[in-house]
Specification:
Order of helices and strands: EHHEHEHEEH
Structural class: alpha/beta
Number of strands: 5
Strand order of the largest sheet: 2-1-3-4-5
Strand content: 15-25%
Helix content: 25-40%
Radius of gyration: 14 Å
Number of helices: 5
Largest sheet: 5 strands, parallel
Shape: globular
Distance between the termini: 13 Å
Length: 147
């Protein structure tokens, strides 16, 4: 059983109550519970963590190295467009990462088109709603076999 870390950045704790036309009606907890079950069905362990604080996400990424996490699934939220610190943390632990976005970041405001993570990610899944998470997790299952 491999460990997969799902990280969610700022404001994703508001899923289900925030701009439902963009982010949907499911809460983060509902999404996480579904993903945890999906991982268990594939004999994998999914660890979930959300924070609005950049330093907590950096600390969690760094801790993943000692926990033998195989892949990080990361929805950086607004930090996508601003955080060199999180980018450096991902690079520093040398754990493959898949970037996730619920909305299509290329179909929104111009400033959202720039990601500090896309060029270091195994892949980017954007604009599929909660399916973005499921697609990322399914891709992680395939990649774990290659690691």
């Amino acid at each position: 059983m491999s460990k997969i870390l799902l990280l969610n950045g700022p404001n994703l704790n508001l899923l289900g109550t925030r701009e439902e036309n963009i982010y949907g009606k499911k809460s983060l907890k509902e999404i996480e519970e579904s993903l945890i079950q999906h991982a268990q069905n594939h004999n994998e362990e999914l660890i979930c963590f959300q924070s609005n604080a950049e330093h907590e996400l950096v600390d969690r990424i760094q801790a993943a190295k000692n926990e033998e996490v195989k892949i990080i699934l990361f929805n950086p939220g607004a930090f996508t467009h601003t955080s060199v610190a999180l980018r450096d943390a991902v690079l520093g632990v040398d754990i493959p990462m898949i970037e996730i976005h619920i909305s299509n970041i290329f179909g929104r405001e111009k400033f959202r088109e720039k990601s500090f993570f896309s060029d270091i990610a195994l892949g980017v899944i954007s604009g599929l709603g909660e399916e973005s998470y499921i697609s990322a997790l399914n891709f992680a299952f395939k990649k774990i076999g290659d690691l």
